[in-house]
Amino acid sequence: MAEDKPDLAWRVIGGLVGLATAWAARKLLGFAWVKATGKEPPIDTDSPEVSLGEAIGYAVVMGVGMSVAQIVVNRTAKKRYEAWRTVKQVTPGH
């Protein structure tokens, strides 16, 4: 049985969606961090000026938040792309 490879269009769309998702999630999570803590997100979590608790908290928030955002957006984009591709293949004249 042949392995299904994603077509070029989906690879390009998926890459762009990934970049946009990472950028937007980072901005949103940074905004939420400021609202929750009253402080700007730590730039360098290895810096001795950042407490260990703050560095770990930020890493957990960013890691979980980015992963959840990517899963949700990628699944939604893939479903919409597949639906569009199916309609395009069924529609006569395309």
Descriptive overview:
The chain is mostly helical. Helix 1 runs antiparallel to helix 2. The longest helix has 39 residues. The mean pLDDT is 85. This is DUF4235 domain-containing protein.
What are the low-pLDDT stretches, counting only 5+ consecutive residues below 50?
Answer: none
Distance from N terminus to C terminus (CA atoms, Å) equals 28 Å
Rg for CA atoms? 19 Å
Shape: elongated
Which whole number gives the mean pLDDT? 85
Helix fraction by DSSP (H/I, runs of at least 4)? over 70%
Strand content: under 5%
Order of helices and strands: HH
Number of strands: 0
Which structural class should the secondary elements be placed in? Answer: mainly alpha
DSSP summary: helix tally: 2
The profile of the biggest β sheet is: none
Keywords: Membrane, Transmembrane, Transmembrane helix
Organism: Nonomuraea cavernae
Pfam families: DUF4235
Transmembrane segments: 12-35, 55-73
Characteristic key phrases:
2 helices; mainly alpha; 94 residues
Give a quick precis of the structure.
The protein is mostly helical. 73% of the residues lie in helices and 0% in strands.
List the helices and strands and how they pair.
Layout: H1 8-37, H2 52-90
Helix pairs in contact: 1-2
